[in-house]
Structures are given as C-alpha cells and as structure tokens.
C-alpha cells in the first residue's frame, strides 16, 4: 500500500517536471557520431520514438532516418538550435558535438569554435529554456600533472590538448551555470569507448577499435601507441547505460555535477593477447606517432568510486566480454 502510494507520488513529480508528459523530450546534438546513434536508439526504446530528436550537420543514412526524427542543426548557429528546441518542446539537451583529441590537434581553430563556442550556445539555451543538460567530458580533461593511477574526480587538471582544455572549460562552465542559474547540468568523464557498429571520430583511443577490423582483415595490426600504453576503456552499452542512469537520477541525489566513469584499463599488448584467444595467429607491432604523447599525459586507471556510490554506476562488460562482443558482431557482417 505504502509502496504503491510512493510510486504514484514519484510519477506525479516526474510528470510535473516534464510539463505533464510521462516522458522527457530529448534533443541530441552531434548525433551521427559514435555515441549519438546508439544513445538515440536506447532513449527511443525507453521513452518512445517521437520523444527523441537526433540532430547533426551530416547527411543521415536511410537507416537512421527510419529510426526516428532527424533534423539538421549546427550548434554554432544558436537560433537554429533554439528553433528546434522550442518547436519540439525539448526537456533534455544532450550535447555530443565535439572534435576529439587527435583531430582537434590537427585543426585547433575549428576545435576551439566547435567545442567552446558550440558549448556556450548550448549552455545559454539550457539556461533560457530550463533544460536538463548532459555534456560528456573525458579522460583527456586530465594532463601530465594529474595523478595517473588512479585518477580521482577532483585533482589538478592541466590538459595539453585543445580537446582536453575545451572539456575542462565545459565542466567548469556547466557547474558555474548550475550554481549561478540553477541549470541542471550533468557531466560524465568517459574513457575510450569501444563500439562495433559505430565508428569513433579521430580520438587517441581509436586503436582499440581499429585493431579488431585489422585482426579480421589482415591478421595483424601496427599500433600508433606503444604496446605498454595503459588507458581506461569502456564497452559502448555500458557508456549508453551510464548516460541514461545519470540523466534519470533525481537532481538532489547528485553530490557533484561531474563524475569519472570507467569499466576497465588495458594496454595494446594486453588487448592483443585477449584477441589471440580468438585469433591465435594475430600479431601486433607498434610505430608510435603524435598520439603517443597525448596518451602518455592521460590517466592510466580512472577512479570512479563516487559514481558507483552516488548513483549506482556499475559497468557490466570487462576486457574478455568486450573482445567476445566485437568478434560476434564483426564476424556476422
Ligand atoms: C579520444 O581519444 O579523444 C576520445 C576520448 C578518450 O575522449 N576517445
């Protein structure tokens, strides 16, 4: 009896929060990348097909168009995103548009424009329209002066990439907007995300996906990082679940607005060994390039105990699970 009335009470509060709708309406920016497509799919399963608007500046595939609403939106054009937000009565903004670490270093002015100016526009819209706002951050928000093993939520952050600098900027500005204007800002620092059906867009951790494609195509892989370079990583389904979980957590349960999340840490050599369980003849070699310096400045092991304690973050997939899932998907293709 008591339980039933508690559930009714929570449902009432939730509906009031979303203007008497039972589900939030969500806008995802930069949605055609590695995270946006699977995230939109999961959110549509949870809240309904019409509740999620996926946006980007790229031409979507037919398959993507069939999955639900897709709109052109350039985050550098505030009015355009504003129109989309107003016309679709958006409650949650999920801002994924960004240039990643390796490509950011190759075009710093563009990275500054997209990652910093784009974030300013989104923050301003979240403030104006009282949207719950999610912006992903990264292990790249730390630098060579941060403790690397383990790296806690709160420590010195002096990243040496424009990507990292722009993400610290987003973390700090988001938290400032939260304290100053009450914006319901939420941010997770992600490790390298491994996915089978969507590709990453120019990060330092991309090797951990390329290696599987080369293992199947040629049986060997020349890695741009040294074999002993340890970095935190996560399987895509855990990443998507972490976004859903933090977005669904009641605001007063969050004791901080930016959290580390991680699932595992491995080196290219350790990943190659795990691959050899499936492909015994697989060989790895290494020819480090400019990405080595970036990786050497990043956390090796991420301390995410606050996320685990505050909102029950609990990743499901470890290194063996990840390798098994990658091969299961790629061999089917
Ligand atoms: C990158 O390598 O740039 C990203 C990240 C760790 O944020 N995958």
TrEMBL record:
Residues 26-261 form the NAD-dependent epimerase/dehydratase domain. One of its GO terms (biological process) is L-threonine catabolic process. Catalyzes the NAD(+)-dependent oxidation of L-threonine to 2-amino-3-ketobutyrate, mediating L-threonine catabolism. Pathway: Amino-acid degradation; L-threonine degradation via oxydo-reductase pathway; glycine from L-threonine: step 1/2. Pfam families: Epimerase (PF01370). CDD domains: TDH_SDR_e (cd05272). SUPFAM superfamilies: NAD(P)-binding Rossmann-fold domains (SSF51735). One of its GO terms (molecular function) is L-threonine 3-dehydrogenase activity. This is L-threonine 3-dehydrogenase, mitochondrial. It is an enzyme of class 1 (oxidoreductase). Its EC number is 1.1.1.103. It comes from Adineta ricciae. Belongs to the NAD(P)-dependent epimerase/dehydratase family. It catalyses: L-threonine + NAD(+) = (2S)-2-amino-3-oxobutanoate + NADH + H(+).
